[in-house]
Amino acid sequence: MPGKFDGLTDVEWNFLSRLLPDEKNATGRPFTDARSALNTIFYLLITGCRWCDVPVGKQWAKKSSAHRRLGKWQEDGTLASLKASLLGAAHLAGKIDWQNASVDGSFAAGKGGGEGVEYGFKGKGVLTHALVDGNGNILSVTTTGAGHSEREQVEKLLDGIDVNTGRRGRRRSRPATLELDKGYDSQELREKNQSTRNSTQNSEKKMAKKKTAPRKKSRQA
After folding, report:
1. I need a labelling partner for 106 at 20 to 30 A (CA). Which of 1, 131, 140, 173 fits?
2. Contact predicate 141/130, CB 8 Å
3. How many domains does the chain contain in total?
4. Spatial separation of the C-alpha atoms in residues 49 and 55, rounded to whole Å
5. pTM higher than 0.85 for the full model?
6. Domain contains 51
7. 64: confidence class by pLDDT, cuts 50, 70, 90
C-alpha cells in the first residue's frame, strides 16, 4: 500500500548526511543538493509514483537530477553502504528481530517490455524478492525476470544481508529461523539451512507431494 512522505526531517538528514560521500570536489556537471535528491528518491519508493509525477518545490529535486544521482549512488556503492549502515543502527537499537525472518515476492507486470522483463507463469514482467525480519524490516532484496526460479533467490537474499554497526568484530548476517512458502521452499535448502521452515507445511514429511487418488467414476443409474 502506498505511503505518505513529506521529506526528510532535520534529525533524519543529520544522520543520513554522515553516510553520504563528500562530493564538493567532484568534477564535471555539478550535482543537485543531496538532501533534495534523497527526498525525491524516497518519495518515489514510499508513494510508488512515476518519475513524471514527482513533486515540485524547494525541497524536491528535478526528476532528471534525482534519477542521475540515483544511478551514480547505485554504481559507486553508496546505496549499499547506506543500507548497511541503516541496518546497523537498527540492530544496535534492538529494532531487528533476528530470531524470525521470511521471504516472499511480488510481481510487477511489464507488458511493454524493458530491462529484466521476462515471461513466467504469472505473466510477462519482473519479480521482486524480499527477505524481512520478524518486525517486517527489509534485510535484503533481489530482482529477477518473471521466468527465474524463486528457490534460487533464497541463498542470494541471505548472502545479501549486510549490517554495518561501525564496530569491530564479526557482523551479524543471518536470522535464526526462516519461513518460506512453497514457491521458495525446497528440500535442498532445508538441508543447507537446518532452521528453515515452510510457513504452510511445517513438517518435513509434508514436503513430499502426495499423489492424488484417482477420481472414482460415478455409477450410472
Report:
1. 173
2. yes
3. 2
4. 10
5. no
6. yes
7. very high
CB neighbourhood size of 30 (10 A): 8
- In one-letter notation, the amino acid at residue 68 is R
Can you tell me which residue has the cell 532528471?
64
Task: Give CA–CA dist 139/131, Å, rounded.
Answer: 6
The answer on 68 and 105 residing in a single domain is no
Q: What is the pLDDT of residues 169-221, one digit of tens each?
A: 666 678 888 888 888 888 887 877 766 666 555 444 444 443 434 545 545 54
The DSSP symbol for 31 reads: P
Residues 150 and 103 in one domain: yes
Residue 116 reports pLDDT greater than 50: yes
Phi, psi angles (nearest 5°) of residue 107: -110, 135
Tell me: do 116 and 62 sit in the same domain: no
* Separation of alpha carbons 67 and 48, rounded Å: 15
Q: Beta strand 138-145 with 123-133: parallel, antiparallel or unpaired?
A: antiparallel
Domain span at 104: 98-205
Q: Domain check: are 201 and 102 in the same one?
A: yes
